Amino acid sequence: MRIGLLGTGRIGSFHAGVLARHPAVEALVVADAEPARAVAVARRTGARAVATATEVFEAGVDAVVIASATSAHAELIGRAARAGLPAFCEKPVALDLAGTLGALREAERTHSVLQLGFMRRFDAGYTAARAAVRGGVLGRLHTVRTATSDPAPPPAAYLPLSGGLFRDCLIHDFDMVRWVTGREVTRVYATGSDAGPPMFRAAGDVDTAAALLTLDDGTLVTATSTRCNGAGYDVRMELAGEADQITVGLDGRTPLTSAEPDGPGAPADPWPGFLERFGAAYEAELDAFVSLVRGEAANPCDGREALSALRIAEACEVSRRERRAVELTEIPSA
């Protein structure tokens, strides 16, 4: 199988290494908006670097992996659809709902394969939590708490391109709420704070956010996120039911220190970032894409699944901006 990789930044470079090692991938063709970066990745992985995305599409590839800047995702999804090429795309599909719906319509019109990169679906902890909830181990689920905390803010130039904290970070938590519980969000109330570095205020974004979600069975969910968690990269999910409760993301590298006299101290090697924490999951999702392209497996996260998570993020952004509860029925789905 020949695969084209569009984008060789941090996550694209990681994907290049995974694909180059994959036994089913015979050749890898890479391109980036900064050609020198693609050349460097090609040298490291044994891939072939080309200057433009057009050259990737013309290289006789069997599928494409889109890891470019978010602003280019929708266009590249459309190009892959029109070329009849299966595509894997990092989330989100686009920076806004209109762009997302347009790209999904293009993929659906051409009956194209599109897998979205929600890597937590391949993490061992989240997979075990899903099995526990779906298997009734916790009894009636009444409370879910999620947290995604970055150790340091991204570069200021990234913020206007990110889509904001709800779409960029918390969208993963929203996808996990749906995937783990099997329920849909019906209502949100969200708020945020820009009291941290001034670049967030300049970008119209927030550095810290919190959302209260109500699920269709009455389960309550709190979802929080911050760009300023100096202790380390912290991603967790707590699920509490009438019979038991479990936690995802609590291990020897979780950046937490107990205030109790006999509690655990700070970890010696806290998680520094998303690639370290979810490296195995990223590899597994690309393996799933290769199996999907080969006709050996079903799509683990299609475009409509990604749209569902984005609609929750959109509702949270409306709620933050207008300071009110928002029903999910207010957010277009088609």
Automatic annotation (TrEMBL):
UniProtKB keywords: Oxidoreductase
Compositionally biased residues, Low complexity: 261-270
Region (Disordered): 251-270
One Pfam family, short name: GFO_IDH_MocA_C3
SUPFAM superfamilies, alphabetized: Glyceraldehyde-3-phosphate dehydrogenase-like, C-terminal domain, NAD(P)-binding Rossmann-fold domains
GFO/IDH/MocA-like oxidoreductase domain location: 126-244
Superkingdom, taxonomy of origin: Bacteria
Residue ranges constituting the Gfo/Idh/MocA-like oxidoreductase N-terminal domain according to the UniProt record: 1-118
InterPro entries from the UniProt entry: Gfo/Idh/MocA-like_OxRdtase_N (IPR000683), GFO_IDH_MocA-like_dom (IPR055170), NAD(P)-bd_dom_sf (IPR036291)
Gene3D superfamilies, per the entry: Dihydrodipicolinate Reductase, domain 2, NAD(P)-binding Rossmann-like Domain
Family statement: Belongs to the Gfo/Idh/MocA family.
Protein name: Gfo/Idh/MocA family oxidoreductase
